[in-house]
What does this fold into?
Amino acid sequence: MLEKIVLEQVKLHLEKNNLIEPFQSAYKAGHCTETALLRITNDLLNAADEGMVSILSLLDLSAAFDT
It folds into this structure.
């Protein structure tokens, strides 16, 4: 119960002070890993269409968090 109350207060603070990144997918309703991957794919395809070179660096942090 306490965690939900704190979460709502933090979310309200972040929204009120415009501190949430517009492209953040985590911890937002209607956003998930899939929406983040779709955004990255779209950006890469758009860049390729414009003849731009893209570099994508991916990090696997699962070992850092023992998952």
